[in-house]
Design a protein that fits this description.
Elements: H1 2-7, E1 13-17, H2 23-30, H3 35-38, H4 49-52, H5 55-66, E2 78-83, E3 86-95, E4 121-129, H6 138-152, E5 157-160, H7 181-187, E6 190-193, E7 201-205
Parallel strand pairs: 4-5
Antiparallel strand pairs: 1-2, 2-3, 3-4, 5-7, 6-7
Helix pairs in contact: 6-7
Length: 209
C-alpha cells in the first residue's frame, strides 16, 4: 500500500520499448547511475567486465542491443519509462539466452534442472531510476511493465534475479540494479529458488498466471 500511495505523485507514466525511445533519452537515465559505466552489460560480457571490455565497447553493445531510435527494429533489449514526458527509468528485459552469465556464473543455477537454452523464458536483469525520480515507486511500475512486454512477445515465462534488502544493511554500488525482491513479489512473481543469502530467483509462468 505504501508504494501505491507514492505512485500517485506522478501525473503520467508511460513505457515504450527502447527501440521507440531515443538513445539520448536512455543515456540520460543511465548517466545518472553507477550502471552507466556498465551500460547494462553485467550479465552479457564474457569474462570480468572491467578487465575484458572498455566503456566504449559496452556502450556500442548496448546501442546495438536496444536499437534506440529504430521503431521498426525486429527486437530490442528493454523498456524506457517516461514520467510526464521526461525519461525517468530503464528496465532490461529480453530472452534469458541473451545473458550468458545467467547460466550459473553470476546467478547460481541451484536446484534447477530446466533447459538453460530455452528461448521462450525471458529475464529481467537491470532496473535504473533516474535521479530526481527515485523513492516514488517507479521501480515497482517498471517490474509490472515487464510482464505485458514479455508476454506480448511470446515469452512462456519471465524471470527476475532481485536482491533481498535488509533494514540497516548497506547496499554497495550497483548491487540493487537487479531490483528489490519486494518489487517483483508485488508484481506477481513468485520465488522459485534462493541461491544465495541476498539473491532470489523470481518467476511468472504465463500459462498458469
Amino acid at each position: 500500500m505504501k508504494q501505491q500511495a507514492a505512485v500517485i505523485e506522478y501525473t503520467q507514466v508511460t513505457f515504450v520499448p527502447a527501440n521507440e525511445a531515443s538513445w539520448e533519452d536512455l543515456q540520460a537515465i543511465l548517466g545518472t547511475a553507477d550502471a552507466g559505466h556498465c551500460q547494462c552489460q553485467w550479465f552479457k560480457i564474457r569474462g570480468w567486465i572491467w578487465r575484458d571490455s572498455t566503456y566504449d565497447e559496452r556502450t556500442a553493445m548496448l546501442q546495438d542491443q536496444t536499437a534506440c531510435g529504430t521503431p521498426n527494429a525486429p527486437s530490442t533489449s528493454g523498456l524506457v519509462a517516461y514520467v510526464d514526458g521526461v525519461p525517468a527509468g530503464w528496465v532490461a528485459v529480453e530472452p534469458r539466452t541473451a545473458y550468458p552469465k545467467l547460466r550459473g556464473l553470476r546467478v547460481p543455477w541451484t536446484d534447477r534442472s530446466e533447459d538453460k537454452d530455452d528461448e521462450n523464458v525471458w529475464a529481467v536483469t537491470c532496473m535504473i531510476v533516474r535521479k530526481g525520480f527515485r523513492g516514488r515507486g517507479l521501480t515497482y511500475l517498471l517490474a509490472r511493465a515487464t510482464i505485458d512486454h514479455a508476454r506480448a512477445r511470446g515469452a512462456r515465462a519471465l524471470e527476475a534475479y532481485p536482491m533481498v534488502t535488509q533494514p540497516g544493511r548497506t547496499i554497495t554500488w550497483g548491487e540493487l540494479h537487479v531490483g528489490p525482491h519486494q518489487a517483483f513479489e508485488e508484481a506477481g512473481f513468485h520465488q522459485i529458488t534462493h541461491p544465495t543469502l541476498r539473491r532470489t530467483v523470481m518467476r511468472i509462468d504465463f500459462s498458469t498466471s
